[in-house]
Design goal:
The protein has helices spanning 5-23, 31-38, 42-48, 52-70, 78-94, 96-104, 108-126, 134-151, 158-169. It has nine helices and no strands.
Length: 175
């Protein structure tokens, strides 16, 4: 995925925040620390972010864009959904350290809010009838399963976990 010049500054800020979170408690990190670590000015930080939480949300958004960009599959059956969830879990496992830092800082709510927003948007785009509670069910399941998996050092095989997730929500339509 090609990177715009402005994306470099954002990404330096993201990396700086996570490096600092590895060394200090999240509450003790301030914007001055982040910009010093990232090698950018305060104005650059505030051009892109309002606060530290926005940096984490950008991190999620960045990886979502990469995931969507790499998707070449429109799901038509259970196996297609399993492939998508498998890929999603593989991406999550590749990003285990930032998620550990987020969990250690008790910032999981940012991840859950992000999942909720994205599932709500996807249900609205598809104009699904069950859009009132279903997005929250999907987001909640993905959140809770991924956090438990993270706590277990992602030891459960990806394919088995993906099948478990899909099988819990995928029902064959009756004729």
């Amino acid at each position: 995925m090609p990177v715009q010049q402005e994306e470099y500054s954002r990404w330096y800020i993201v990396q700086a925040l996570f490096k600092l979170m590895n060394e200090y408690s999240y509450e003790k990190i301030n914007v001055t620390d982040i910009v010093a670590k990232a090698g950018v000015g305060r104005a650059t930080f505030y051009r892109y972010f309002k606060n530290k939480e926005d940096v984490i949300i950008y991190y999620f958004e960045h990886h979502k864009k990469e995931f969507v960009f790499s998707q070449h599959l429109y799901p038509r059956c259970r196996e297609d959904y399993i492939k998508i969830v498998t890929r999603l879990l593989e991406v999550f496992r590749q990003q285990i350290e930032p998620f550990r830092l987020i969990r250690r800082a008790h910032l999981e709510y940012i991840y859950l809010d992000y999942l909720n927003r994205n599932f709500i948007e996807s249900f609205e785009e598809e104009d699904r009838a069950e859009k009132t509670f279903s997005p929250y069910l999907y987001a909640g399941m993905l959140f809770n399963v991924s956090m438990k998996w993270l706590d277990d050092d992602c030891s459960e095989p990806v394919e088995e976990l993906a099948a478990l997730i899909v099988n819990s929500i995928y029902f064959e339509k009756q004729a």
